[in-house]
Amino acid sequence: MTALLAVGCGGEEPPAAPAATVAVVDPVLAADTWPARMAHDDQRSRFEQHDGWRQVFDHELSGALASFAAGGDQRGLARVHQALADLYASAALLTANATVEAYGTDAQPSDPAHMAYFVGVSHMIRGDHEEGKALLKVVDGVDALVMRAQAWMSLTADDASLSDLEGITGPLGDVQPGTEPPVASLPHFELTERTEKANRLGVNDPTALLARAAWHRAAAAAAAPETDQGLQGQMARRYAIGASAAQTHPVLAVDDAWLFAGSTLSAADAAFVAEAAASGVESINAWSGRSVLAAALSSAVVEGKLDPQLAQDAGFGLAKQLSALMADVGGGVMGFHRPFTQRARIAVLQAGMIAADANDQYRDAGILRLNALERMESIGIDPVFALAVAAWDAGNRNPLRAEEILHQFRASYPALSIAKPALEALHLRRSRNAGPANPVH
Amino acid sequence: MTLKNAIRAVTGLALATLGTGATLAYFEESIPMSLNPLYAKTMADHRAQELIFDRLWFHDAVTNELRSRLVQKYQIAEAGRAVEITLNTGIRWHNGQSLTSKDLCFTVKAMLDPRTPSPVAAHYRDFITGCDSKGPQVALIRFNRVLPNPRERLMFPVLPASAFDSTAISPDLQFSARPIGTGPFNGKRGLRDVTLDKFDNAHHSPKILQMRLQEGGDPLVQTKTLVNNNVQGIVVVPPPQRPDLSASDDVSMKSYDLRSWWYIAVNPNKPALSNQKVRQALNMVINRNELRQFSIGIKPGDKNSPCEFISGPFISASPYYNSEVPTQDTSNLAKAESILKSAGLTKLGSRWHVDGQPITLRVGMLASLDREAPDLLSQVANQLGAAGFDRMTNKISADEWDNTVMSGTSDFDLIIGKWSFGLVEEVNELFHSKGRQNLFNYKNEQVDAILAEYDDAVTDTEQRDAYHKLHKLLSIDLPYLFLWKLDTRSAWRTEVRGNIVAPYYYFTEIDSWSVGG
Asked: Which residues of A touch B63 (CB under 8 A)?
């Protein structure tokens, strides 16, 4: 038994053989998903022969980076850099959301004089350019902050290049796939509270996380074959921060390295998800004949809205269908089948979440988001998705889950510590204004 | 009772309640001690009360948006020192009467009444000064200062004026067992369960006809009962049971955002334990790695552990946690022995003595915690025994806990417990010499001074810094031996649909829950 399969078993009892299963999607689409194809030993063997893939499967991105850096799979290396780019972009959004809520919405007269820069940049990252620029214009007094504010005036988070961002926060070093930029000492700035005690307050610039994301994106592009560039852009839409413009996406040739163990189950799913991020439920209808995720979700669309409960049923149904399909291929149920099909189930929830968000169904998208996170607990939490949930929570002024997520992953990804002070400030401020509560047993 | 018989017993009990598909039975940590929101002492109390009452405002369990089912509109009044609230019309109490502003003002006045000995109400007295009814549905709540966002502070459940003779509300009224609320369920507490019947209202239309809360017993029995569909949910699933339930297609594990940490409280009024050095030695006697492994099933180095050691009274993810204070993961018996000797204790044979008398430690643990951390009590006792202390162990019933431990009158030397928190993680009541939840009347002037610093802090960073200092001081003085934080997870049958679990309060979104085929 290979390392990957051993991990796939996860110590669980092999599940019982699936009963007769109703197909929720066209069997041809189901057969084209990576879980179904990886039921074949020969297709799976590529991913069982490299430690990096086991680490990708276990969501250990730092370990996977080191493994792929040693050689053997350039696309694997590119995949990990892309994941790290998404991770740090979400962390930037987390920091921005927490900063705006803590020091913008809940601003206090005692806040340091120069918080305008941090709130302004945070607005820019959130895509609130007018509010951001209005604040950046008034930044003065600290030369380093004035220079940063001026640089941001001509940027948006969407189109800022690595060199733009490095121009603000300092160079991260040459982009060398297989490496990581060093983490600067924290906090980035120490400002003085306007109180008698004049306490020093550590504040970090979320631009540093955006720069780190851009660096990893550049490393992903450098590691992958040139033919994958279009696909990388398409895959990046899943965690892109800021509003997406509606755009049609073609189905591109996809190497399994971009799919294995992930939430994009097939080549068409990559295009569907990229479109759904802007077009919402419309894209489900448009892609239900080609994308397995869209096909599964099509049964959850009721009168132009995505029903979150039906989307969960669709995820469950697809997992059962794939389970039956994999059992057919393998001649029985194997230990790795369930972890694979659970990923497909989560993929449906995540795609539904993306479509619902773009369909102005904020709460329904939230239900699917939280369900996806819950489902991950049994098979391992994807740090990239978890950080995106944390960013969403901070935008909702809910610091608790975000704090736990950040705490869980900070040791593995030390640069995430940049997000900590703003999130702490949000918690402290909300707590101070909350109603009374006693400890209970 | 064998496992098989235990399952049969529970199954019989549960089947008796399952009349229709819209009935839902579930296991709780314990039977609620009180269904009166003024006297919520356990998380089981809070969760059950959420089904019976409406809080004036609450946070959406998904988006965290501030919402109210009772309030039609509100406006800030008197330059920020009051809020005028207009209640929705058509809302009925479970006794059929209409909700009016008199009920809201009665609730406020009951909380302000010093004859209402509610620890929850006491905190509201810090900032609410009164409430006037301005019309059938309009009330004005006054504050002693300008509050930046008063809605965030007004999250108390509203009580019916018609159910009480006076604003002096005591915990022993019949209301605590047979409450009247405006919530989605009409609840009655029995000796062994709580029955909750659907109550349609202008602002609630629950899809579940009846809910039945039962006290969970042996975790393995709970799990089997759930898998066999004889109950539909378990609110608190201990870590050892989680993998099996996660692997089942018939059950969904649900996250429950609750900040809980476990401790061993030390009685400083006992001759030996009054010495700080002895408490420090005990801290080194405790091998948390082994306790966690043998009780909760988590080995050192396990990935994504739901259980993480702590060195102070906060979970590690909290901004109040002082990460510079290290945790004590394993025992150090040699160092403990050296400290005990320096504290004047003598070891005769293999047993520790003080003033010529052998030390016997009486160790207690809230009985219901034994399900979440099985055998923890005996494991702690074993470690103390191996270090040279005689010991006696007791599992403490909920009543004894409430009557003696919580009132600070228990005679235990050590008590194992857990505290749970939501957004507010204040621990002043636990450690202040006059704290209402100070289990052994612990007194330390430096601690009191730091807590005063926390209360007087002008900024949130000053508050955080005060708690960092508190954490450090408590890790030295050790009124508690801090153990770990333990995540809480629930399990519900997949037939239970739309089951969004709200942070802390759990059942806030119960109207969306249904029991499908």
From this structure: 362-363, 366, 396
Measure the CA–CA gap between B461 and B464, rounded to whole angstroms.
5
- Residue B19: predicted pLDDT: 39
Q: Are B311 and B326 in contact (CB under 8 A)?
A: yes
Task: Report residue A348's pLDDT band, with 50, 70 and 90 as the boundaries.
Answer: very high
Please provide residue B265's backbone torsions phi and psi, each rounded to the nearest 5 degrees: -80, 140
Give the tens place of pLDDT for each residue, A367-382. Answer: 999 999 999 988 899 9
How confident is the model over A276-301, as pLDDT tens digits? 999 999 999 999 999 999 999 999 99
When pLDDT is cut at 50, 70 and 90, the band that residue A158 belongs to is confident
* B467 contacts in chain A (CB < 8 Å): none
Q: Please provide the DSSP assignment of A359-400 as one string.
A: TT-HHHHHHHHHHHHHHHTTT---HHHHHHHHHHHHHTT-HH
Residues 6+ apart with CB under 8 A from B422: A400, A437, B258, B259, B503, B504
Closest residue to A199, CB basis, from B257, B317, B461:
B461
Q: What is the dihedral of CA B172, B174, B180, B186, to 10 degrees?
A: 110
Count residue pairs from A and B with Cβ separation < 8 A: 164
Residue (of B83, B450, B66, B509) closest to A430 by Cα position: B66
Report yes or no for ipTM above 0.90.
yes
Q: How far apart are CA B333 and CA A198, in angstroms?
A: 45
Predicted pLDDT at B329 = 97
SS3 readout for B64-97: CCEECCCEEEEEEEHHHCEEEEEECCCCECCCCC
Of residues A333, A250, A348, A236, the one with CA closest to residue A299 = A348
How many residues would you count in chain A?
Answer: 441
> Could you tell me the pTM of the whole model?
0.94
Residue A432 has its nearest CB partner, among B417, B422, B463, at B463
Residue with tokens 């009963």, as numbered in its chain: A19
The Cβ of residue B472 has, within 10 Å, a number of other Cβ atoms equal to 16
Residue contact B498–A316, C-beta within 8 A = no
Mean pLDDT to the nearest integer, B374-382: 96
Cβ–Cβ below 8 Å for B465 and A193: no
Q: Which of B155, B458, B460 is opposite residue A428, by nearest beta carbon?
A: B460
Round to whole Å and give the CA distance between B115 and B132. Answer: 20
Q: Give me the percent of chain B exceeding a pLDDT of 70.
A: 96
- Decide: B452 and B399 in contact? Cβ < 8 Å: no
Q: Going by C-beta distance under 8 Å and a sequence separation of 6 or more, which residues neighbour residue B305?
A: B298
pLDDT in tens, B381-439: 999 999 999 999 999 999 999 999 998 999 999 999 999 999 999 999 999 999 999 99
